[in-house]
């Protein structure tokens, strides 16, 4: 009887506990989620490459340095409302579903980016022009508060456990493709229209392109189904509601979820914030600040600096899925740790190369930064969702991610440009990256390995029925051995001592 009780407590997996993924659905999920990130980062690429031009259009009365700072201040303002978007969209995604919220954030992002192209200039309406730009950026920031966390959650909950790193890396593949498209478009327009043409009217064209891209992304997201993990969680919550359990109802409420996130999962929140800081400080330093740094601070031609950073983004695009696949094989923790140490060691040499001028040495420096960035970009989308259980995943990840991005990531161009302007030290961006590397290394030290394992609160996910049967068979064998070992220990305790 005791052995039977033990065996029940060590229950093995059943076939219904294992989810067999549908390859076409997985491809649609990855494509639709990545397209939203492409849309978001198309806007970032455009804004970063147009920082000097937008400063002339919306802040013409300032000095060139102050124009850049003012433009990046407007850029950073969008990040201040991202935590509010995370507080709204994250818990909402845990309650009504990932797909519905992702469709809503796509609509808001596309509409606000498209609207920037219609804004009047400072010369036309005065101080109202930068205020309208700020409003558009705030709407973008609010909607983005639910975008990345929702997209990573969606892909992670659809991906087989052994391929989550590879499939998750396609999300950030969309990130850098979007950035490359936006920055590439601005580079071509600048070469064709010239600086005066871009200042007069050419700056509007990239924002107009965002409208059709948003419609395509919205169409794809409306065709998606809910993730298997969320469907199972929803069924469990429905059963709990039928029992009219007041404790469970309190847990499912918005306040109950927020309380649980910060009381029971505060360690995961801090680890998430540290990893997000590491990734996003590196990301925004390279994508949003580096073009302006080379052209405005170092005095390089705009076309040269734009082409160098664009080449860096293409390098990241080529490498990112390889890094994601590597994390499936070797683990997320080793990749993050190696990237953190390399960032601390190589940030200063990379910026020293960039400061040398010309093409070759700055290209090598930019390539070094790109290889450092891809260590984090190829691993983040599979690592961060695994920190939290299914019922809280979207909300907890949205809150932790957006607080960290708002405080440290999105403000990177503003702080870096302001510190360079105040101190006159052109190596400040390197020191900034080194500090981020130290913080990321500490967060990685406390990170538990999740590669190849089920998400918290979810059952295993495999690619074929044969893999499911093998997993169930191994689980039964393991459960039987565990029960036998415990039974032998119990018998040993009951056996009277030898005389």
Descriptive overview:
The chain is mainly alpha-helical. Helices cover 81% and strands 1% of the residues. It is built from 22 helices and two strands. The protein has a two-stranded parallel ribbon.
Q: What is the structure about, briefly put?
A:
This protein is mainly alpha-helical. Helix content is about 80%, strand content about 0%.
Cα-atom radius of gyration = 25 Å
Question: How many helical stretches?
Answer: 22
Percent range for helical residues? over 70%
Mean pLDDT across the residues is 83
Shape assignment: globular
Widest β-sheet, arrangement of strands:
1-2
List the helices and strands and how they pair.
Blueprint: H1 2-9, E1 19-20, H2 23-49, H3 51-58, H4 64-80, H5 82-96, H6 98-116, H7 122-125, H8 128-144, H9 147-158, H10 164-202, H11 204-222, H12 228-242, H13 246-252, H14 254-264, H15 266-297, H16 302-330, H17 332-354, H18 360-383, H19 393-409, H20 412-423, H21 428-445, E2 461-462, H22 465-494
Parallel strand pairs: 1-2
Helix pairs in contact: 1-22, 2-3, 2-6, 2-9, 2-10, 2-11, 2-15, 3-4, 3-10, 4-8, 4-19, 4-20, 5-6, 5-8, 5-19, 6-8, 6-9, 6-11, 9-10, 9-19, 10-16, 10-18, 15-16, 15-18, 15-19, 15-20, 15-21, 16-17, 16-18, 17-18, 17-21
């Amino acid at each position: 009887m005791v052995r039977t009780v033990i065996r029940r407590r060590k229950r093995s997996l059943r076939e219904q506990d294992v989810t067999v993924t549908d390859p076409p659905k997985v491809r649609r999920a990855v494509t639709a989620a990545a397209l939203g990130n492409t849309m978001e980062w198309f806007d970032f690429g455009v804004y970063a490459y147009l920082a000097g031009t937008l400063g002339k259009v919306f802040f013409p009365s300032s000095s060139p340095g102050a124009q850049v700072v003012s433009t990046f201040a407007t850029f950073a303002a969008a990040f201040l409302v991202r935590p509010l978007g995370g507080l709204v969209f994250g818990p909402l995604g845990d309650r009504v579903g990932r797909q519905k919220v992702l469709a809503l954030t796509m609509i808001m992002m596309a509409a606000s980016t498209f609207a920037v192209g219609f804004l009047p200039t400072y010369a036309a309406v005065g101080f109202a022009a930068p205020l309208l730009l700020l409003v558009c950026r705030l709407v973008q920031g609010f909607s983005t508060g639910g975008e990345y966390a929702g997209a990573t959650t969606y892909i992670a909950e659809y991906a087989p456990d052994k391929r989550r790193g590879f499939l998750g890396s396609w999300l950030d593949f969309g990130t850098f493709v979007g950035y490359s498209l936006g920055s590439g478009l601005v580079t071509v327009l600048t070469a064709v229209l010239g600086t005066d043409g871009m200042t007069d009217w050419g700056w509007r064209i990239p924002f107009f392109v965002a409208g059709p891209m948003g419609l395509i992304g919205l169409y794809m997201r409306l065709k998606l189904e809910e993730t298997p993990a969320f469907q199972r969680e929803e069924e469990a919550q429905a059963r709990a509601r039928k029992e009219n359990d007041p404790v469970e109802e309190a847990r499912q409420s918005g306040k109950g979820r927020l309380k649980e996130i910060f009381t029971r999962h505060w360690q995961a929140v801090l680890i998430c914030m540290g990893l997000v800081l590491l990734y996003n400080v590196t990301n925004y330093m390279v994508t949003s600040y580096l073009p302006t740094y080379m052209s405005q601070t170092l005095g390089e031609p705009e076309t040269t600096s734009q082409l160098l950073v664009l080449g860096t983004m293409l390098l990241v695009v080529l490498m990112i899925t390889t890094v994601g696949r590597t994390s499936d094989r070797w683990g997320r923790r080793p990749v993050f740790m190696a990237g953190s140490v390399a960032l601390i060691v190589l940030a200063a040499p990379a910026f020293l190369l960039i400061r040398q001028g010309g093409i070759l040495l700055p290209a090598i420096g930019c390539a070094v930064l790109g290889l450092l960035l891809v260590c984090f970009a190829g691993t983040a989308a599979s690592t961060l969702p695994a920190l939290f259980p299914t019922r809280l995943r979207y909300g907890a990840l949205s809150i932790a991610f957006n607080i960290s991005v708002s405080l440290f990531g999105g403000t990177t161009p503003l702080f870096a440009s302001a510190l360079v302007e105040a101190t006159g030290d052109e190596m400040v961006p390197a020191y900034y990256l080194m500090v981020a590397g130290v913080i990321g290394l500490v967060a990685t030290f406390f990170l538990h390995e999740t590669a190849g394992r089920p998400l918290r609160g979810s059952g295993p996910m495999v690619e074929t029925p044969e893999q499911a049967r093998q997993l169930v068979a191994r689980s039964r064998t393991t459960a039987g051995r565990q029960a036998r070992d415990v039974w032998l220990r119990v018998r040993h305790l009951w056996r009277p001592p030898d005389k």
